[in-house]
Amino acid sequence: MKTILFALRVTDLERSLAFYDGVGYVKLATIPFEDGSSLVWLRLPDEPSVSLELVHRPADGPVEVGGFAHFAIEVESLADTLTRLMAAGLHPGAAELPGGPDGPKTSWLLDPDGYRIELVEWPPGGAPTPDNP
């Protein structure tokens, strides 16, 4: 068993697609529905398959984010990622060290609907696993 994707409902599909393109996501497919709704499947370049689904339902009105904390994206170099995101016109937060100098480096980014995205560069030992807590 494994998680394959998560879905975010978005207010303005084109604005969200431009944002996630700036983050680095690649569009795989769009599934349109007769009522004007659609699903768009995205993945990051190093992922083998879809990992993010944008759900656009215009008839439901604007998105009101609530009950959702954030999702995280692992990056190789936080400094390089922040530089690339700023060059793409996005506004990531400053780098933080929430676990101290030996912990991960993180930054936060808000998407157009207010979803929080945590960017994480793991320390040299890598991400926590059962064998590497």
TrEMBL record:
Domain VOC: 1-122
PROSITE patterns in alphabetical order: VOC
Keyword Cytoplasm annotated: no
Superkingdom, natural source: Bacteria
Hydrolase keyword on record: no
Keyword annotations of the record: Lyase
GO function terms (MF aspect): lyase activity
InterPro entries documented for this protein: Glyas_Bleomycin-R_OHBP_Dase, Glyas_Fos-R_dOase_dom, VOC_core
Protein name: Lactoylglutathione lyase
Species of origin: Kribbella pratensis
Lineage: Bacteria, Bacillati, Actinomycetota, Actinomycetes, Propionibacteriales
